[in-house]
## 1
Amino acid sequence: MLAAGVDPSEAARRVPVQVLAAALGAPDPVSAPVDAAALATPYATGVVGPVADADAVDRAAARRLGADPADQPRAVAVLDAQLLVQAHAATGGLVVEVLRRAAGSPGASTRQLIETVLRDAPPVRSTRRVAPLGGSARAAAEHADPAEPADRLVELRLDGPDGDATGGAPPRVLAFGAGPRRCPASEHAVAIAAAVVDVLREPAC
Ligand code: HEM
């Protein structure tokens, strides 16, 4: 990519999804980053844009799911596409922020820089959960307007200082979430990010 004149920060954003697509045997790995970027917002929010219009989103989905559904079981294609979409912004964001800090700390190892970014400036800053109302809140809700939803959408911050940290309990790093829905690919993501950063930090680059 660099030899072809691609800007290093653009390469940093594309490579994670491209290598993952190749490793998964997904169709056309080279177009996978563009497709993942087009699908990311509609996947997360149900809203089309801002990267692509509805037709472009449909074309990206068709490329990721394969023209011929007989090529591979549909569920596998859907899961592979979802992995690429999940990997896209978070891993690209991690690589870009680590490279930015590497420019100011040339002596720091890539591993140290990744740990610092995950602790202080994680690329995914929040996640959401639907929290069922319980106890007195549920009882109160039973007398409330029936049009009111029974559950609440809660935003959970994953960045910022850990308010529960003490001398005996070091700050927790929540960059990959926590619990049963924690990111299943944290080790893959760190390995891919470290490899991309290492190559781009080489003097020839
Ligand atoms: C190889 C790259 C990656 C892949 C394939 C990947 C895959 C996934 C998948 C499939 C989920 C959904 C889990 C679920 O809903 O049960 C997820 C969630 C998540 N990922 Fe990743 N991910 C990658 C990179 C990253 C990176 C670099 C970060 C941030 C540093 C990150 C942070 C998260 C977070 C915060 C969640 C939500 C966890 C929660 O809501 O509790 N991921 N990831």
Note: Residues 1-122+185-205 form one domain.
## 2
Amino acid sequence: MNKKKVIAVIPALDEEKTIAKVIRGVKQYCDEVILIDDASFDKTAFIAKQEGAVVVTNCKNQGYDKSIDNGFKIAADRGASVVLTFDADGQHNPKDIPAIIEPIISGKADVVVGIRPFRSRTTEHLFAFVAKRKLGVCDPLCGLKAYSINVYKDIGYFDRISSIGTELLFNAASAGYRIVQINIDLNRRKDIPRFGRAVKANWKIFKAIIKIIFYGGAKNGKNKIG
Ligand SMILES: Nc1nc2c(ncn2[C@@H]2O[C@H](COP(=O)(O)OP(=O)(O)O)[C@@H](O)[C@H]2O)c(=O)[nH]1
Ligand SMILES: [Mg+2]
């Protein structure tokens, strides 16, 4: 039987404090790790290479969505069947990976989305409300998601509207792909989020909501997830 190749894509910006432990944890459950270092000022890329990740270093900051999109292209070229996204800051628990990838490996789902036990920002609640009503997605901004590579190959693009890692999920949901949602663990971040402090991060999320409503898959709500 052919084993399905699982590749993790980790977007990272200045995460030297946590990246070694994150990669070690993720490697226990994935065949390969691709780290997209988005012009970090610190040693994130150096440490990630030492830990055996495939590292892409952007010369200038391209943003979360472009970074993930690039990671998916590389994962597809490297023969991935399942691709998951995982944060570099230590908030996610690698022990959740088997449950996140299992529905795809066993052919029961095309996309699996984590549901975090808490959300930090007001706009995250608003985004979740919109996503739940439109498509039944409870926690669209959860950074821990897994995809069958076929979804990416069929629909593609994370970076068309830059909606913080939600575009492919919404387009897949709208197109009728099978979405499964799973409760995950979440540690608290000890320093400032790389998306910025409260006002900046809330503004980014608010723009993402508007983009998803008007341009993304969410406007087509006919394929509700159960
Ligand atoms: N490639 C890339 N990664 C980013 C960027 N901003 C944040 N990240 C990464 O995305 C993940 C989530 O970011 P974080 O600031 O912790 O968001 P929060 O968990 O919603 O507070 C972390 O792994 C960050 O290093 C960016 O501009 N580019
Ligand atoms: Mg975080």
Note: The radius of gyration is 16 Å.
